[in-house]
Every structure is written in C-alpha cells, then in structure tokens.
Amino acid sequence: MFLISMKMYTVFSAATCLRIGCLLLCGGCWIRQISTFDANRFWSIILGFFVVSLAGPFFLVAQNLLCNRWFGDSERAFVTAIVGLAIPLGSIAAFVQTGVEFATV
Length: 105
Fold this sequence. Notes:
This protein is mostly helical. It folds into two domains: 1-57; 71-105. The chain has four helices and no strands.
C-alpha cells in the first residue's frame, strides 16, 4: 500500500490523499463498530482492521512528503525527526491515558 499511496501523492494533491486516508480510517472503524451487532463478529472485525490498515500508509507517506515540500535543507532533518516521533509519542499518550482511566475505575 505504500507504493500505491506514494503514487497517489504524485497524481493527486496532498489534501485529497489525506481525505482518502481519513475516509478509510473512519470506514474501518465503522465496520468494527458494526461488528458489535453481528452474530459472526470475527470476520467483520478482521475486515475493519484491514480497512484501517490501508489508511496507515497515507499518513506515513504524508509526513516525509510535507517535510520535503515545506522546509528547507537546513531545517528538514530536524523537522523529519520531530514528525517521525509524533506517532510513537501519540501512541504512548493514548496508552497512558487509557491506563489512568482503568486505574481509577
């Protein structure tokens, strides 16, 4: 999917590709949510995770592409490092918040 999303960023605008990624992400989440009403939950959950995983490369390719387009040579390495840390730090913050919520219950 990385190759497809890189090609899409060269053909379409960044805003269009990010919208496609957001639609895939939201669609996969809705499919997973619908699985709570389904008697055969396994396949609908797998389908939801598959659709969500298709959205990931759209966001991962965008960070390097935008750093290359918006920042000069002297700033590019620093900005790429900061943006590259955003996803792991966001995941850590989400897990910490979830852990705090479970600890207070």
